[in-house]
Specification:
mainly alpha; flat; 2 helices; single chain
Length: 74
């Protein structure tokens, strides 16, 4: 049985939600996944580190995509 939930935060306007999503992606590609990669590298998990770096690149794309969508509605 899965009993965990994920806090979605406050649901705002479409623009507010896109802004929040972009900021979340920025944190992920700029801090979260690079830190994961560094730890994996230090612990000798080179394949995992490489995977985390690739995920960071995808998250960067997501941020740019959300910002373009935001620009479309402003």
């Amino acid at each position: 049985e899965i009993t965990a939930s994920y806090p979605a935060g406050v649901i705002g306007t479409t623009a507010e939600n896109l802004q929040a999503a972009a900021e979340g992606e920025k944190m992920e590609w700029g801090t979260l996944y690079p830190n994961f990669a560094q730890v994996a590298e230090e612990e000798g998990f080179k394949d995992a580190a490489r995977t985390f770096r690739m995920v960071a690149k995808v998250e960067n794309y997501h941020e740019r995509r959300y910002r373009k969508l935001l620009a479309n509605i402003e």
